[in-house]
């Protein structure tokens, strides 16, 4: 199982993944942190993306994803991160740390972590 950050999920939905990302995403099932749903909702509300949570294509993909909750363990793991970023990215990274699920991200700050398991 892989943990996708918000932008990787959006790239997957719009067909704009890089070849290496496509390869890794084909290799395992997908999951997201619950905060990704909030981010997508906000991005749609702000007009930064054209696909919202109620879009049929998005809804179809969400049905196949495992959604990790933002629970006490994830919140405790925030203190174990070896970087500082925006809160949503920290929650996404802490989710990977707690559940041992490799993170798929393009974010340079997250990718520089020595603690968060990364898929590529």
Q: Total number of β-strand segments?
A: 4
What order do the SSEs take from the amino end to the carboxyl end, as H and E? EHHEHHEHHEH
Low-confidence stretches: none
The domain count comes to: 1
Characterize the overall form.
globular
| CATH-level-2 architecture | 3-Layer(aba) Sandwich
Number of helices: 7
Query: What is the distance, rounded to the nearest whole angstrom, between the alpha carbons of the first and last residues?
Result: 13 Å
| Proportion of residues in extended strands | 5-15%
CA gyration radius, whole angstroms: 14 Å
Mean pLDDT: 97
In CATH, the homologous superfamily goes by the name 5'-nuclease
Strand order of the largest sheet: 3-2-1-4
How helix-rich are the residues, as a percent range? Answer: 40-55%
Instruction: Characterize the biggest β-sheet.
Output: 4 strands, parallel
Structural class: alpha/beta
Structural features, described:
It is a single chain. The chain has a single domain, classed as 3-Layer(aba) Sandwich (Rossmann fold), CATH 3.40.50.1010. It is built from seven helices and four strands, in the order E-H-H-E-H-H-E-H-H-E-H. It has helices at residues 6-14, 19-26, 34-45, 56-64, 72-77, 87-99, 108-111, and strands spanning 2-4, 30-33, 66-68, 103-104. The protein has a four-stranded parallel sheet.
């Amino acid at each position: 199982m892989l943990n996708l950050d918000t932008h990787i999920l959006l790239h997957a939905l719009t067909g704009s993944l890089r070849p290496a990302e496509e390869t890794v995403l084909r290799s395992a099932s997908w999951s997201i942190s619950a905060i990704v749903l909030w981010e997508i909702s906000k991005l749609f509300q702000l007009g930064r993306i054209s696909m919202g949570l109620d879009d049929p294509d998005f809804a179809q993909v969400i049905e196949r994803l495992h959604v990790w909750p933002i629970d006490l363990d994830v919140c405790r793991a925030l203190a174990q991160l070896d970087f500082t970023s925006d809160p949503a990215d920290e929650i996404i990274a802490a989710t990977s740390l707690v559940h041992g699920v490799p993170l798929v991200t393009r974010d340079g700050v997250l990718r520089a972590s020595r603690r968060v398991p990364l898929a590529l």
